Amino acid sequence: MKGILGAICGDIIGSVYEFNPIKTKEFQLFQPNSTFTDDTVLTLAIAKWLCEYNNSEEKLIENLQYYGKLYPNAGYGGRFNQWLNQDNPKPYGSWANGAAMRVSPCPWAANSLEESQKLAKQSAIVTHNHPTAITSALATSDAIYLAKTGSDKNQIQKHIETNYGYDLSISLKKIRPYYSFDVSSQGSVPEAILCFLEGKNYEDTIRNAISLGGDADTQAAIAGSIASAYWEIPKKIYYKAIRRLDNRLLNILIDFEEKFI
225: which residues sit within 8 A by CB, 6+ positions away? Predict the structure, then answer.
């Protein structure tokens, strides 16, 4: 299986390590308290928007607020949590990685790289309108679109470095010892993309992301969203992940897959 489920699996696997960082790739993928977080909720809110609302910005905002409020304990950032509860919400200049973590439905719904970029930017700027956050959403979305359309890793890396200025030449081995929790776009999204570039398959990509010891669920969601456009997600992983979704979220996932994947 491929598609946005790659982000969801990464989020669920990483959920128990967000505030309990580890620096090893040897860990149990699923634990009893592994659960979906804001990464999954907002990814599926965007998936619902793309399925039903003709890409209206007003409907995007309504969707993000509606599903965000349905899951108030999903772990949103403080400023996003305030945005959720505003009557007339406006973007608040966030430079964090929230735009990249929820962008994966956009390239799957798009029929061209240009359309993917338009949707990715639209999905970001209603909250995360800082240039670095928009860049992170575009870089993630481009990587997914290129992966799903047959580009190899070298082509993806060159495209991201050329168009978005990310340095993807450093190895995870060098990053891991000093890397720590970082929710900024510039300090977490290039590393998540690198986890995919060094990954041997989907599972290895997720293990790379969590072993950095950073914002584990979000970086695993971002890395996983790219990896699941490049490789199949193993059944042993996605079966355990979808069992942790409630019916409401699962139905959005099924509808999106039937329409776009």
Answer: 4, 6, 7, 10, 103, 104, 140, 144
Q: Is there a contact between 91 and 128 (Cβ–Cβ < 8 Å)? A: yes
Distance CA 133, CA 93 (A): 9
φ and ψ at residue 234, rounded to 5 degrees:
-60, 145
Q: How many CB atoms lie within 10 A of CB 162?
A: 9
238 neighbors 11 (Cβ within 8 angstroms): no
All residues at 6 or more sequence positions from 158 whose CB lies less than 8 Å from its CB, including other chains: none
Distance of alpha carbon 173 from alpha carbon 51, whole angstroms: 40
Tokens representing 188 are 């977490």
Selection from 84, 82, 78, 92 nearest residue 63 by Cα: 84
Distance CA 177, CA 173 (A): 8
pLDDT in tens, 103-145: 999 999 999 999 999 999 999 999 999 999 999 999 999 999 9
In the chain, the DSSP E strands lie at none
Which of 88, 210, 230, 216 has its CA nearest to residue 157?
Answer: 230
176 class by beta-carbon count within 10 Å (0-12 exposed, 13-18 middle, 19+ buried): middle
CA geometry: angle 96, 100, 103, nearest 5 deg: 140
What DSSP letter does each residue of 41-88 carry, written as one string? HHHHHHHHHHHHSTT-HHHHHHHHHHHHHHSTTS---HHHHHHHT-SS
SS (H, E, C) 88-107: CCCCCCCCECHHHHCCCHHH
pLDDT above 90 covers what percent of the chain? 98
* Continuous H helices in 165-215: 172-175, 185-198, 202-211
pLDDT at 160: 98
d(CA 70, CA 44): 12
